[in-house]
Amino acid sequence: MWGIDLGGTKIEGVILKSAEEPEVLFRNRVKTEGRQGYNHILKQVKKLVTLMEEKARYKPERIGFAAPGTIIPQTGLMKNCNLLVMNGKSVVADLEDLLGTNVKMANDANCFALAETQLGIVKQQFPDAKVVFGIILGTGVGGGLVVNGQVLNGYHGLGGEWGHNYLNQAEGEKCYCGKVGCNESILSGPALEAYYAGLIGQKRKLKDIAQRTTIDAAAATTINRLTAHFGLAVSVLVNIIDPDVIVVGGGVGNIDQIYSEGVAQIHQHVFDHQFAAPVVKPALGDSAGVFGAAYLFAAAHKKVLIPN
Ligand SMILES: [Zn+2]
After folding, report:
1. CA distance 265 to 243
2. Residue 214's CB: how many other CB atoms inside 10 A?
3. Rounded to an integer, what is the distance from CA 240 to the centroid of its chain?
C-alpha cells in the first residue's frame, strides 16, 4: 500500500506491506517548494514516487494521497487548499497522467481519521468502532469522518468539515473562510492565544496558559472558553452522527482539560445529556496523514477482495 502526504512544506511517501500487516517498508520525503508553482509540485511528487519505485522495484497500481484541500467529487478539481496554487486544478487526473497509476485523494483531516481508525488509537483500543470522528485542533481546525473503515467524503467533498461549523457569532472572530464565529475562529491554538493576550496584554503559548489556570484568572477564562466551546461544538456533531469514538489531534488536542471539563461540557449540550463515547488522543502523531493516505485504497477495496 502506497501513501503520499502532500503537505505545505514537505511531501512524504510511505510503502506499507499490507492493510493486515502494516509494516513500513519505505519512507522518505522531499520538499514541496510550493512557491515554484503547480507544475513544480507535481514534479516533486514524481521525484518522490521515482525514489519509492526504485526501492520497491515495481510500479504501484494505485497510490493514495492526503492533501490540505478537498477534491470536488463532480469535477475532480481541488478546492479549499492552503497550497493555493493547487486550487482549481485537476490534481487527481494530472497525477494519474504523470505517474501512470490510479490516484485517490482525500483531505488530510480525513486521512488522519482513517489512519487512527485503521492503525492508530481506535484500532488499538476500540477495534469494534463503526463510526469514528477525528478532530484536528491545531493552527487550524478540521475533522474527518470514517464509517465502517471508510472515509465519508460527502456529496461536495465536505464530509467532516467541522472546523467551519457555525459556533458562536458573538464571541468568534472573522474567519478566513469569510464567516464569523466558526469553530476554527474560537478553538484553534492561535485564536485561543490571541484571546488570552487580549485579556491580559501578554502573549503566552496555549500549553503554558493551560498550566496557569489556578494562578492566573485570564488563563482560567481562556481554558474555560476552550472547554465550553469544545463541548458545544462536539455536541452538535454527536446529535447528528453519534460517533463510537472521537479522536482529538493537533496541538490543542494535548490540553488535558479537554478530556475532563471539555467532555463534561459535551454532556451538558447533547440531546439527552447522556454521553459515554470515548474522547481520546491519537496514537500516530505526525504520521497519520501519510498512513491514512496509504489506507485510502485499502479501505475502498476491503469489501471486494481481489485474488492475487
Ligand atoms: Zn471559517
Report:
1. 17
2. 8
3. 19
Sign of the Cα pseudo-torsion (259, 216, 181, 140, in order): negative
Interval between CA 71 and ligand 1 midpoint (Å): 18
Per the confidence metrics, is the pTM higher than 0.85?
Answer: yes
Chain segment 120-178, per-residue pLDDT in tens? 999 999 999 999 999 999 988 999 999 999 999 999 989 999 999 999 888 888 888 88
- Is residue 220 within 8 Å of 251, Cβ to Cβ? no
Tell how far the Cα of 262 is from the centroid of ligand 1, in angstroms.
Answer: 21
Q: Which residues of the chain have a pLDDT value below 70?
A: 299-308
Ligand 1: centre distance to CA 183 (Å): 7
User: What integer pLDDT is reported at residue 194 of this predicted model?
Assistant: 97
Ligand 1 centroid–CA 101 distance in Å is: 35
Distance 54 CA to ligand 1 centre (A): 42
| H or E element that contains 206 | helix 206-210
Sign of the Cα pseudo-torsion (35, 37, 38, 39, in order): negative
